[in-house]
Each structure stands twice: as structure tokens, then as C-alpha cells.
Design goal:
CATH topology of the largest domain: L-amino peptidase D-ALA esterase/amidase
Number of domains: 2
Shape: globular
Number of strands: 15
Distance between the termini: 21 Å
Helix content: 25-40%
Strand content: 15-25%
Strand order of the largest sheet: 13-12-11-14-10-15
Largest sheet: 6 strands, mixed
Radius of gyration: 22 Å
CATH class of the largest domain: Alpha Beta
Order of helices and strands: EEEHEHEHHEEEHEHEHHHEEEHEEH
Length: 406
């Protein structure tokens, strides 16, 4: 069961974006598991992808197509990752693009393929191809929520975020969906994200906006520390709301778009953690007082990845020594433990490297029983600060992943 506020908001229509879906029976019957996006001509599209060396065939193909042109279509299947599938998997990804290009009457490099699901199995191409035209024929502009459901695997709920904002008196929309619940530690320059706006933005700035906002959203979450073979995030700007194109970071409108996109991306990323496989707690890890951002992230992830820390939170056990241990083995050079302070929410558990004098087990347990908890660490060695979002590790995580292929 997901943690906290996970409600799907009003998903605003983005002018110049249509979405369709179909039941292709990629893995499971009687569910929409094939989703397509259509972008209006002139849309600027950017993408970031997994840095896993064993990246999936659709990742290779999407990256190549993005370098060649501005794509018009996205084709997303769930139930099968098309990763670890060799030459045949690459051919299947390319065939998917070619077959859909025939349906949509575009060039094959104007189609980007995306897959998510089980690794190491070949796509059921006959069924997938049969679903392409029904998905194309169902294209509509107001089905973002249906698309969010269509890309789910072990997710328990669809994930969406949407805002409207004003640029030079024109109302623009920013809407996105994501999927992911396990094999989550995105490391981008099994997680997928698709966000679009109808604001007018140059292609170079679309890519810059995406890289900037991914860094503080999808690249700051972890469920189990596993970087998927298929992580992909796409940001598209159709320009259909009207107005003069934004071409410079010095344009005041750029700042507006950046702030909206950052909120949408952060919400989509946090929804993945809130829906983590078997999660019962949503945990924010804040590390401040670092000499630089990297060491703050190293320590934050060390805490967030620790099975002992995560299981203690599942048990609501304030065994804070596990947090100190994770800080200590994070690999930060010349760490002076006597300067370290640690809090659970407002309860200080560690002061100057040892137990805080006024800390009580009862106070710690009260915080640990909450569904949402913040761990705050002050390293006492600088001004840098960063934040990572994670969840606990429960019995259900093991059950879900033990049974995933059944």
C-alpha cells in the first residue's frame, strides 16, 4: 500500500499531445499494456537514460533516434523489458519503430521505443505489432491518467503530476506520468517518466531543463539501490500554447518553466518512492554541512541503501546506531565523527558523534512509528546540502520480487 498523498491530480491537457493505448497481451491478458504518444509537428523533445552498462535495446534505439531528429511518437510496452536480449532484442526494438512508422506514416527514426518489465525474455512481437494500430486509432488528448495505468508493472497505482502556469499572459500546461516501484536507483545522465508542456521552448533548452530537473528528482530517489537497465525520462515542448520561443536561460520565462518542471519532476519521482514495493514508510534523508554536494549524496545514499537502516524503519525500531554506521562507511575522507549531529525529525539522536544527552528511546520510537520521517545529518564541515528520498524494506518487498516472474 502506497505511503501518504498519492492521489492522481487533475491532469491538464497539453496542446499538441495525444495518447493512445491498447491491450496487446505483451505479458498479461485483459489490461492495456501498450501506450503511444503523439507529438505535434515542431515539438522539441529531449531524453535522459540509464547509465547501466547493460542497458536495454529500446534505450539504445531511442538514444540513436534522438540524435538524428525530433521524434513525433513514443511507443511504450509493459510486461517485458527487452533487455539482455542480444541482437534479436535490438532488431525487435527497431522493428517496433518501423512497424509503427508505417501506421503513423512517418520515418522510423521519428519513433522512440520504451519497454519495462521482465529482463531476458524476447518481446512477443506478433502480439505487440498487432496492438500498434489499435493504440494509434485511439489517440486522444485527455487520457493521461489511462496512460499512467498503461505503463505500470509492479506499481500499485498510476502516478501523475500536472500544473498550469502563465507565460506572457498565455496559460500553459505541464503534465507528466511516471512508473516504477522496484529496481529503483535511477542513475541517468525499470523507471520511466514522460513529461510534456505546450510552452514554446527551444530544443537546446528542453534538454537543459530536463537534465537540470532530473538531477534533483529522479536522481535523488532510491528504493533498493538497483539501477535498472531501462531507465528513461522524456521531456517534450510542443509550443502549441503560442508565444515567442524561449531560447535563453536569461529569459525570465525560462525561470518560470524551470520552477514548474522541477515541481512536476519531484512529484513524479517521490510518487515512485511512496509506491515502493512493500513500502510502509516514506523517508527523507537530508545531509547538510558537507564540504561538497558529492559527499552529502554519498552519505545520504549510504543511509538510504542500508538494509539494516531500512528494516529498522519497517519495524519502527529507533536503532540509530545503524544510521551512524552507514555514515561511517560511506567513504567520505577525513570525516570527523565528533562534529556529526543526527536528528529523526526534531528529535536529536546523536550530538557531537555520541548519544544526545536528552535523547530517549520513547522519543525515537514515536518518530519511527510515523508513516513519513526525515533523517537529518549535519557533518559540520562545510555549507553543502543535498536530499535523497527512500522507503523502508518490508516482508512484502521480498515476496513481490520472489514471485515477480510467476
Amino acid at each position: 500500500m502506497a505511503v501518504g498523498d498519492v492521489a492522481m491530480p487533475q491532469m491538464h491537457v497539453v496542446k499538441g499531445v495525444k495518447i493512445g493505448s491498447a491491450e496487446a497481451y505483451v505479458r498479461y491478458p485483459n489490461r492495456r499494456d501498450l501506450v503511444v504518444f503523439e507529438f505535434a509537428e515542431g515539438t522539441n523533445v529531449a531524453g535522459v537514460f540509464t547509465q547501466n552498462a547493460f542497458c536495454a535495446a529500446p534505450v539504445h534505439v531511442s538514444k540513436a533516434h534522438l540524435m538524428e531528429t525530433n521524434p513525433r511518437y513514443l511507443v511504450i510496452n509493459t510486461g517485458n523489458a527487452n533487455a539482455g536480449t542480444g541482437v534479436i532484442g535490438m532488431q525487435n526494438a527497431q522493428t517496433t519503430c518501423a512497424e509503427f512508422a508505417t501506421v503513423a506514416q512517418v520515418n522510423s527514426n521519428e519513433v522512440l521505443p520504451f519497454s519495462t518489465g521482465v529482463i531476458g525474455e524476447q518481446l512477443p512481437m506478433q502480439r505487440l505489432i498487432a496492438g500498434l494500430k489499435p493504440a494509434f486509432d485511439s489517440l486522444k488528448n485527455d487520457v493521461w491518467s489511462e496512460a499512467a495505468s498503461g505503463i505500470m508493472t509492479t506499481d500499485t497505482l498510476p502516478k501523475g503530476a500536472s500544473e498550469q502556469f502563465i507565460l506572457d499572459g498565455v496559460t500553459c500546461s505541464m503534465t507528466g506520468i511516471s512508473k516504477g516501484a522496484g529496481m529503483i536507483r535511477p542513475n541517468m545522465a525499470t523507471m520511466l517518466g514522460f513529461v510534456a508542456t505546450d510552452a514554446p521552448i527551444s530544443r537546446a533548452l528542453v534538454q537543459q531543463l530536463l537534465k537540470t530537473t532530473v538531477e534533483q528528482s529522479f536522481n535523488r530517489i532510491t528504493i533498493d539501490g538497483d539501477t535498472s537497465t531501462n531507465d528513461s525520462c522524456i521531456f517534450a515542448a510542443t509550443g502549441q500554447a503560442g508565444g515567442v520561443e524561449i531560447t535563453s536561460v536569461d529569459d525570465q520565462r525560462y525561470t518560470v518553466v524551470l520552477e514548474v518542471l522541477a515541481r512536476v519532476m519531484k512529484r513524479l519521482a517521490q510518487l515512485i518512492v511512496r509506491d515502493g514495493e512493500g513500502a510502509t514508510k516514506f523517508i527523507t534523508v537530508v545531509v547538510e554541512g558537507g564540504a561538497n554536494t558529492q559527499e552529502c549524496c554519498d552519505i545520504a545514499y549510504s543511509i538510504a541503501h542500508s538494509p539494516l537502516v531500512k528494516t529498522a524503519f519497517f519495524a519502527s525500531d529507533p536503532n540509530w546506531g545503524r544510521i551512524l554506521a552507514a555514515i561511517g562507511y560511506a567513504g567520505v575522507a577525513n570525516l570527523n565523527v565528533e562534529k556529526i549531529q543526527v536528528w529523526l525529525d526534531d528529535v536529536q539522536i546523536c550530538k557531537d558523534g555520541g548519544a544526545a544527552a536528552d535523547y530517549t528511546e520513547e522519543a525515537g520510537a514515536k518518530v519511527m512509528n510515523q508513516a513519513e520521517i526525515t533523517i537529518r545529518v549535519d557533518l559540520g564541515r562545510g555549507q553543502a546540502k543535498d536530499t535523497v528520498y527512500t522507503c523502508d524494506l518490508s516482508y512484502d518487498y521480498v515476496k513481490i520480487n520472489a514471485d515477480y516472474r510467476s
